[in-house]
Each structure stands twice: as structure tokens, then as C-alpha cells.
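re the bet — no i am not wrong, look at it urself. input seq straight from the record:
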Amino acid sequence: MTDQDLDAQAKTLDREFVFHSWLAQANLDLPVIAGGSGATVWDHAGNRMLDFASQLVNVNIGHQHAAVVQAIQEQASTLATIGPATANLTRGRAAQRIIGKAPDGFAKVFFTNGGADANENAVRMARLHTGRDTVLSTYRSYHGNTGAAIVATGDWRRMPNQYARGHVHFFGPYLYRSEFWATTPEEESARALHHLERVIVSEGPATIAAVLLESVPGTAGILIPPPGYLAGVRELCDRYGIILILDEVMAGFGRTGRWFAFEGYDVVPDLITFAKGVNSGYVPVGGVIISDEISATFDDRVFPGGLTYSGHPLAAASIIGSIDAMEAEGIVEHARRIGDEAIGPGLADLEQKHPLIGEVRGEGVFWAIELVADRGTREPVAASVIGQLKKELTARGLVPFAADNRIHVVPPCVVTDDEVAQAISIYDEALTVVEA
């Protein structure tokens, strides 16, 4: 078969046999990806594209990093799988690596298969630890597609899936579209905290187990917390005896230019959920990093939760390989620099040039371009505009990440200055066509 035949066969088999998430299944024509390296992917025919989506904002270390691939291969040749009710050296070392990046006061990791069940089990831990039921989370959020995680989610994906109990939503800060008539970041922070406290009091503090927040909301728009907000949420949780769960599934392990996003906001949570960037999705994995106090709750009490593949050795090996490589190669520091010196300035230039852009915001390799029909009213562009922009970006060799009226600029942490410059040029060209 020719390379073109392989691409055609991949599409045929996909349409005939694969059921895709979050899509209507008829008439799908998805791109074929056969290989990748760093921030670049290609199909069988060799057509190359810059991956500025990092797939689902998870390939932080880049595609096919040799150290991570080797770690998986070596583990597979030794022990490909083992049950969770065993002690395994690779699993223990992976947990040790993760705890080494956590704040003081954390000593245990509960491994899951991904981010959704990490949040699911964190909610369970908070409820069991406190003896309370209610979980507060924001309307602008995404926490996963399992029972409690999807109901904790604030966006449209929650609405057809509301089968879990005990969830209440509130508005988080978002100055560009403030719910609080704020005009400065400081006002937005103070008013958002006032709103949250009113929700806590109205719901009854003694009923609330946890506040669940993305440290930096990702799919909701890469909403950088304003000054004092996360620290203020911590203070409210302390005042009312509520567990603070910070969801670092998308924002963690280098995405913001820090190992954990919350490190930049003067806050330490009680539970930390992770997935995605911990091993760049080379093997499915996630988990909960548990504070000493909550962990002690289950010293003499069974935790009623578990997964067949919790702490899977291939996943554990990939975590070790990834964290060690990110440390040795300065990848987290590189992500911070490339955001400060290349992505941020490049997007700021686009904002000045293109009237479709209402705002750009972000840090590290975690950025959003918010598109508006009118800068004065800030009316979001129509879905058709986003569809056209995605088409133009793809045609020019860039894998885009689109959400609502935004294009998210989220390449791997290892993206180079030249690749950023190439991507900025592609965004520029595509926006020019759409605006014409």
C-alpha cells in the first residue's frame, strides 16, 4: 500500500468502527496522525503539522520523547502489568517523584486512569473526610466525564449528564466578561470572593465538603486568577472547615511554566488532582496527591475506591521517565521562558493587528485568543467564524485547539522559538483571511 492508501484506510476504518467522544458520528472527516516528534505531527504521506493543541493539552514533553519511550519499553520487557494490591518498585518510585514536586504536607499518591477519575476520587475523599456532601465548583470549568466530575463541570457537557447529587455552582473571576461589574483585577478578585462566601453561607457551611477549582481554568478559557483570588478561596475554606481541591489536570507539570500552576498564587490546597502532563499521555494515568491530614483519615478506615489499573507499571515508568527528563532538560523553565519571550509577545502583536481579537491571556505554554465580533460590545464571534478559522489554520499546517469563541495556543513545553514564530505567522495569515 502507498502512504496515501494508508491514510485513506485509516479514515475508512475510523468512520466505520470508531465511536468518538463529544462529536456527532455522521460525516466525520478527522485528520490522520501517524507519527510525531516534539511539537510536530504527520500523516502517513508525510504531511507535517505544528501541534499547537498538544492533542488535548496533554503532550507537555512533546511527541515521542526518547526517554519516556525507553522507560515504557524497559518496563514492558520486565513486567507489563500487575494488580494494585501489590508493592511495585516502579509504582513507588513514580509516587516518590510526584511527591517530590508537591508542597510540604503531602506524602501519598492515589493513582487513577486519568483526570476525570482523579477528580471523582478526590471528591469522594473530601466527602468521607469531612462527613459532608456538597461540592462547590465554578460554572466556567471542566473536571471530566465521570459521574461527579461531569456534574462538577460548569459548561454545557454537564447538562445531559446530571445524575450525581450534592453539587452547587458559582461564578469564578473572569475580568474580560465580569459577572461582578468589576473594572480592575483587584475588584474582580474581591467581588468574586464575596460572591463565593455568599454561596457558602447560603448553602450552609456545615453541609459543604469541598470547593473544587482548576488552578487555571483551561477549557473554560485559560482564565488566569486575579491577585489574591486563590489565596482568598483558601482562607474561606479554612474559615468554614471546607476541603480545597485544586484540579491541576491540564495546568500541571509544566503547562504554566511551573510544576504546579498554583505555585504562582500563594496557595496550598488539601488535595491536588493531576493527569495529562505528568507523563504527556504516553500511557493513560492520573491521580490524587493527598495531604497528610486527609491521608490519615484512612489509616484505620478502608477507602472505598479503587481501579484495576491504579498505579499500572507502564504508566508509572512513563511518569518516572517524563519527570526525570523534564528536570534534566529544564523543560519547565523553558516553558516559562518561551511564554514570556515568544508566545506572549507574539500574541500581543496579533492583538494589536487584528480587530477580531478581543483579548489574549495566558502564561507558559497556556494561552487563549478570545475572538469577538465587536471589540466595544465584546460580542463573541459566531461558531461559523471559529469553524472557518480552524479550516484556515489546518490548511496552513497547524493543529488548532478551539473552544467556544476562542483559539487556545497550547503547544508542547518543548516548542522552539522558531516553531512559535512559524505558528504566529500562521495565526496571522488565517486571521487575515477570516477578517477579509
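see?? Residues 331-353 form the longest helix (23 residues). told u. also The chain has a mean pLDDT of 97. so pay up
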